[in-house]
Every structure is written in C-alpha cells, then in structure tokens.
Design brief:
alpha+beta, Immunoglobulin-like, four-stranded antiparallel β-sheet, 2 helices, metal-binding, Phytocyanin-like
Length: 129
C-alpha cells in the first residue's frame, strides 16, 4: 500500500511559498512618479526660481523644462553653481526645448547657462524625498 511520497512536504512547501509571496507583495510600496512642468504654463523662463516653493517632490518625479530651443538651456549644477550662476566644467547640458529630468533623492540644482539668464532668475533648486 503506497502513499504518495513527499505529498505532505510538497503541499506544505507550496503553501509556505504562496504565503511568503503574499507577505512580500504586501510590503512593496508602489510609488507613482509625478511630472511637473517647470514654471507651470509659463515654462522655463526668467523669474522661475520660486516655482518649487510649496511643492513636494519625490525621487523618481520628472521635471519637464519647456522653452524655445536655441534661446535657453538647462544645466545640472551643484549648490555652488546654483549660487554663482556658473556651470562647472563637465556639467550636463540639456538643450532640446522639451527636456525631461528624473529627480534623484536629495537636492538638485538647475540653471540656464546663457549669459544673464540665471542672474535673471532662470534657476531652480529642488529637494526630493
């Protein structure tokens, strides 16, 4: 008279594996990213430096910089570059007129490096949680 060998073990293993998957899925936080048009309807232009005020950004959110190609650009800088309105050598420059930049956790700084534009308020500092 034979009993199925390992049938209890297989059933227990399947049940344990299923419960483990359910527990893991319950602990995964689904975070949706948000896209923000920098400067809202006015786009990336002079005087946008206060645009981030009152907004909450998260890592993975996307900043969309819309502007007339050839008139402006977007340069990723550090805090010193932001304060001085000078892009350090090797800074990443975007110039498509419709640039999309995904935020990393922490502080991010962006300026327009066309002479006089950053000094005219064409810069933003963003903190992403």
């Amino acid at each position: 008279m034979g009993q199925g060998r390992g049938s209890v073990t297989q059933t227990w293993s399947l049940g344990f594996g299923l419960m483990l998957c359910i527990c893991l899925l319950n602990h995964i936080n689904v975070v949706e990213s948000t896209s923000y048009n920098v400067g809202d309807g006015g786009g990336w232009t002079f005087g946008v430096s206060n645009w981030p005020n009152g907004k909450s950004f998260n890592a993975g959110d996307v900043l969309v910089f819309k502007y007339t190609k050839g008139l402006h650009n977007v340069v990723v800088v550090d805090a010193n570059g932001y304060k001085s309105c000078k892009a350090p050598s090797g800074s990443k420059v975007y110039d498509s007129g419709d640039d999309q930049i995904t935020l990393n956790q922490g502080d991010s700084y962006f300026i327009c490096s066309i002479p006089g534009h950053c000094d005219g308020g064409m810069k933003i500092a963003v903190h992403a949680a």
